[in-house]
């Protein structure tokens, strides 16, 4: 392999927010209650306003799964992927990932969403590895705790850097594809940065740094 290409997932590979799709799916399957579901955007708003760290947002969301079966959630994750997420994969993202692999680069999906929905996505697009938010499991039951910080913001950079070093690369030898201002530090750290469906803040940064900008549609 000549290097690593890190792909953000939400609105980069998949149209929409995969974590939100999974939560809505679980609500409709009556796996979580309406109260728990309604709290999620409230916690997200507190994070956006700077009152709550993202890790705490995730931990609060995980409370409802404490003591429940990890095997059950994995099955639900695959069902959600098949019905909700797979149809929303950008055809352009599929083609790009295929081209990247043909260039002898390792493809890694980076996402704050849980591994239960990112693993089947990785298989579908033939990614080599995933770096996601992982929930602690003991005796096939979720503890409601994380095994490491959520794969978001600065923690996403740390995860990418640690993975690259394990494979014998530095981040400046890697590529990064992402859509959001929250991924600007990762894009800056990598040797090749590509803004995919960028929000206005990332678009401004991409123009300033002369990064490539690409847009996908379903």
Order of helices and strands: EHHHHHEHEEEHEHEHE
Residue stretches low in confidence (pLDDT < 50, at least 5 long) are: none
Q: Which structural class do the helices and strands define?
A: alpha/beta
- Give the beta-strand count: 8
- Could you tell me the mean pLDDT? 90
Describe this structure in words.
With 218 residues, the chain is of the alpha/beta class. It has one domain (3-214): HAD superfamily/HAD-like (Rossmann fold), CATH 3.40.50.1000. Helix content is 47%, strand content 20%. The strands form 2 sheets. A 6-stranded parallel β-sheet has the order 3-2-1-6-7-8, sandwiched between helices. Helix 9 links the parallel strand 7 and strand 8. Helix 1 crosses helix 4 (70-85). The model has no long low-confidence stretch (mean pLDDT 90).
Describe the secondary structure blueprint for this structure:
Layout: E1 3-8, H1 18-28, H2 34-48, H3 54-62, H4 70-85, H5 91-102, E2 105-114, H6 115-125, E3 129-133, E4 135-138, E5 141-146, H7 154-166, E6 175-178, H8 184-189, E7 192-196, H9 200-209, E8 212-214
Parallel strand pairs: 1-2, 1-6, 2-3, 6-7, 7-8
Antiparallel strand pairs: 4-5
Helix pairs in contact: 1-4, 2-3, 4-6
């Amino acid at each position: 392999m000549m290097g690593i290409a890190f792909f953000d997932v939400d609105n980069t590979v998949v149209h929409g927010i995969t974590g939100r799709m999974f939560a809505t799916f679980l609500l409709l399957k009556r796996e979580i209650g309406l109260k728990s579901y309604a709290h999620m955007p409230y916690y997200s708003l507190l994070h956006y306003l700077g009152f709550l760290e993202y890790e705490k947002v995730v931990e609060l969301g995980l409370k409802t799964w404490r003591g429940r079966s990890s095997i059950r959630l994995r099955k639900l994750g695959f069902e959600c992927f098949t019905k909700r997420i797979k149809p929303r994969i950008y055809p352009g993202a599929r083609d790009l990932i295929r081209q990247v692999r043909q260039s002898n680069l390792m493809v890694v999906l980076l996402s704050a969403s849980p591994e239960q929905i990112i693993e089947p996505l990785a298989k579908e697009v033939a990614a080599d590895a995933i770096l996601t938010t992982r929930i602690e499991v003991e005796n096939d039951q979720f503890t409601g705790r994380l095994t490491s910080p959520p794969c978001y913001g600065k923690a996403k950079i740390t995860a990418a850097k640690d993975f690259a070093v394990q494979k014998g690369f530095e981040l400046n030898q890697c590529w990064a594809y992402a859509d959001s201002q929250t991924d600007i530090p990762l894009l800056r750290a990598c040797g090749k940065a590509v803004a995919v469906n960028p929000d206005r803040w990332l678009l401004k940064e991409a123009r300033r740094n002369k990064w490539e900008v690409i847009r996908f549609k379903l």
